[in-house]
């Protein structure tokens, strides 16, 4: 399958990743994750990056699995849950430790602005895909007809509201994991009673006398 001039990997590994995400996540996360791959690949081509499409695909498909019901009891950052799922999936299928680590880092860092840009292409491009689909960063980098082709294949009805709700549902039970990252903004808006930790207060109220 080719969408917006981007070939979707059709290896056994990629097909199994697709099936796993289909079985684990809802339609919102599935279509979002496919768009993240496509937009990431488009940005990679635009930037002239050489990337492993299969690894980029797995990183994109697994990047939000930490938000799913499977991890509702987890106390780790949701990014880590998705990264661990991807690593386990890849190692079980004979992918090397080094390659699995790249995917792990791509998922673990996808909510950390700027830093992924200076890392391996697959890491940079998972973040680029997320930033384009969720935040609109790089929107005009992609031709209108390419954006339209991606959205036609993987629609985004009421996406802004629904993805914010999905973020909240996936992290409300572990609010401490949002300290120092962008997901604190979600809980501040959508979870009643949430009080955002203040970095300065953490320092001044620590056990150190001075």
> What best-fitting shape do the alpha-carbon axes yield?
globular
- Class per helix and strand makeup: mainly alpha
Largest sheet: 2 strands, antiparallel
Amino- and carboxy-terminal Cα gap: 61 Å
Describe the structure.
The chain has 210 residues and is mainly alpha-helical. The chain contains ten helices and two strands; from the N terminus they run ββαααααααααα. The protein has a two-stranded antiparallel sheet with strand order 1-2. The chain is globular and about 60 Å long. 38% of the residues are buried.
Briefly characterize the structure.
Helices cover 58% and strands 2% of the residues. The N and C termini lie far apart (61 Å). The protein has 210 residues and is an all-alpha fold.
SSE map:
Layout: E1 2-3, E2 6-7, H1 12-24, H2 27-47, H3 53-62, H4 78-91, H5 97-108, H6 121-135, H7 144-153, H8 159-171, H9 183-190, H10 199-204
Antiparallel strand pairs: 1-2
Helix pairs in contact: 1-3, 2-3, 2-6, 3-5, 3-6, 4-5, 5-6, 8-9
């Amino acid at each position: 399958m080719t969408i917006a001039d981007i070939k979707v990997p059709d290896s056994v590994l990629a097909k199994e990743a697709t099936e796993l995400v289909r079985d684990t996540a809802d339609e919102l996360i599935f279509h979002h994750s496919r768009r993240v791959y496509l937009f990431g690949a488009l940005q990679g081509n635009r930037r002239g990056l050489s990337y492993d499409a299969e690894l980029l695909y797995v990183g994109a498909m697994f990047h939000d699995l930490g938000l799913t019901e499977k991890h509702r009891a987890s106390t780790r950052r949701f990014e880590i849950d998705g990264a661990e799922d991807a690593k386990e999936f890849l190692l079980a299928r004979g992918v090397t430790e080094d390659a699995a680590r790249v995917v792990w880092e791509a998922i673990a860092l996808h909510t950390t602005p700027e830093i992924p840009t200076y890392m391996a292409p697959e890491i940079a491009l998972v973040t680029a895909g997320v930033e384009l689909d969720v935040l609109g960063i790089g929107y005009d980098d992609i031709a209108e007809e390419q954006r339209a082709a991606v959205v036609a294949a993987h629609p985004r009805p009421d996406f802004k509201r629904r993805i914010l709700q999905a973020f909240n549902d996936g992290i409300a039970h572990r609010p401490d994991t949002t300290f120092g990252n962008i997901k604190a903004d979600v809980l501040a808006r959508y979870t009643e009673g949430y009080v955002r930790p203040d970095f300065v207060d953490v320092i001044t109220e620590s056990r150190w006398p001075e």
